């Protein structure tokens, strides 16, 4: 397994090449860096897959079908120039820099873990360039690569304390539009059909679709309506963020969303959107987590813990495709997307060794 200085050197290469998802040139430059690091470690250049201008990288090993998919992304939420205010540093056992935790350290861990295998046949590494945007160009690629695999291992950063992510909520995104009729608010408001009032009814109704007992959240968010303070609003809309733990709940909320009707005479309501990512349910990760626990004990690592989280990742897509999925195998640290983003340096070798041993275990089919 790679020594810590080699891991840190490669993480520095990735972190110091800024890669905001929205900047196609920056993402392409970052892909070049990942490709060079991977080619040096693995002895093979990746396939470059460019979709909608976004650069994704794929390494496939062996001539047979893939059995284990290692999944990560090299884009970040940090804009160009972030290194000026958040420079790459390693001090007091803490590594900092934009995107280090989410998830450039995880990408490096994946490359080193596979490089340590004596037999890589059956392994695919996929590093995408648009995860932070919701994977619009890479979703189909991810699902295609996962098809037929025995496992998908996602190198997103760990949960608090290094916990693996064994459940992720699925997400749905909606826009609810109200159509009314404009009128002068002072002279003849009765001739208007007030879209704002309609939206008020719909917001309260939609919020009621949540179910705390099932962990389902339905949150009205961005709201806009009307054109001026003295005009009855003729139109408006609000956005809705839905998070669910099960497919059944995602389907229930979707059905209720598309069944809503207007409450104001003369108004019309339109619902756009639907499920965006399926949930990663506990059943998808249960067996893989057990294997990882056993391997951690064999390697003398601290006992593994698990966590259910509300945020989504590309692991939601692999789980939704029916592939056993274990997430949060990347760096231990915290502060994703925040000024406090950091990685705990001492955890890197052990986590990388765990990943490598887990891949080897899955390739041999050991129980």
Automatic annotation (TrEMBL):
Which InterPro entries does its entry note? ArgE/DapE_CS, Bact_exopeptidase_dim_dom, Pept_M20_glutamate_carboxypep, Peptidase_M20, Peptidase_M20_dimer, Peptidase_M20A
Instruction: Tell me which Pfam families the record gives.
Output: M20_dimer, Peptidase_M20
Q: Name one GO molecular function term.
A: carboxypeptidase activity
Tell me where on the tree of life, at the top rank, the source sits: Bacteria
Q: Where is the Peptidase M20 dimerisation domain?
A: 166-263
Q: Give the keywords, sorted.
A: Carboxypeptidase, Hydrolase, Metal-binding, Protease, Zinc
E.C. designation(s): 3.4.17.11
The enzyme class is: hydrolase
Q: Which cofactor does it need?
A: Zn(2+)
Q: What is this protein called?
A: Glutamate carboxypeptidase
Organism field: Amycolatopsis endophytica
Q: What is the lineage of its organism?
A: Bacteria, Bacillati, Actinomycetota, Actinomycetes, Pseudonocardiales
């Amino acid at each position: 397994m790679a020594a810590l200085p080699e891991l840190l050197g490669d993480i520095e290469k990735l972190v110091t090449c800024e890669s905001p998802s929205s900047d196609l040139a920056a993402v392409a430059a970052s892909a070049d860096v990942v490709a060079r690091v991977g080619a040096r470690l693995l002895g093979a250049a990746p396939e470059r897959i460019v979709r909608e201008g976004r650069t994704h990288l794929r390494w496939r090993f062996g001539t047979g079908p893939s059995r284990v998919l290692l999944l990560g992304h090299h884009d970040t939420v940090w804009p160009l120039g972030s290194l000026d205010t958040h420079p790459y540093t390693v001090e007091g056992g803490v590594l900092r820099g934009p995107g280090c935790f989410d998830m450039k350290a995880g990408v490096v861990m994946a490359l080193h873990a596979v490089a340590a295998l004596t037999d890589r046949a059956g392994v695919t590494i996929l590093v995408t360039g648009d995860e932070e945007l919701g994977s619009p160009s890479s979703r189909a690629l991810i699902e295609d690569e996962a098809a037929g695999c025995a496992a998908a291992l996602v190198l997103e950063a760990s949960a608090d304390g290094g916990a693996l992510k064994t459940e992720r909520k699925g997400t749905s995104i909606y826009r609810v539009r109200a159509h009314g009729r404009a009128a002068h608010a002072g002279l003849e408001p009765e001739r208007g059909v007030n879209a704002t009032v309609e939206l008020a009814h719909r917001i309260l109704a939609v919020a009621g679709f949540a179910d705390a007992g099932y962990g389902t959240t339905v949150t009205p968010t961005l709201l806009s309506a009307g054109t001026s303070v003295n005009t009855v609003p003729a139109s408006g809309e609000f956005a809705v963020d839905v998070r669910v733990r099960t497919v059944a709940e995602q389907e229930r909320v979707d059905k209720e969303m598309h069944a809503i009707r207007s409450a104001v005479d003369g108004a019309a309501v339109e619902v756009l959107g639907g499920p965006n990512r399926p949930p990663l349910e506990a059943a998808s990760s249960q067996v893989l987590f057990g294997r990882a626990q056993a391997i951690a004990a064999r390697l003398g690592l601290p006992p593994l813990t698990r966590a259910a989280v509300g945020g989504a990742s590309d692991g939601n897509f692999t789980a939704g495709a029916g592939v056993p999925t274990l997430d949060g195998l990347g760096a231990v640290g915290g502060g994703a997307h925040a000024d406090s983003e950091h990685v705990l340096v001492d955890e890197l070798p052990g986590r990388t060794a765990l990943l490598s041993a887990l891949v080897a275990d899955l390739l041999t089919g050991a129980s």
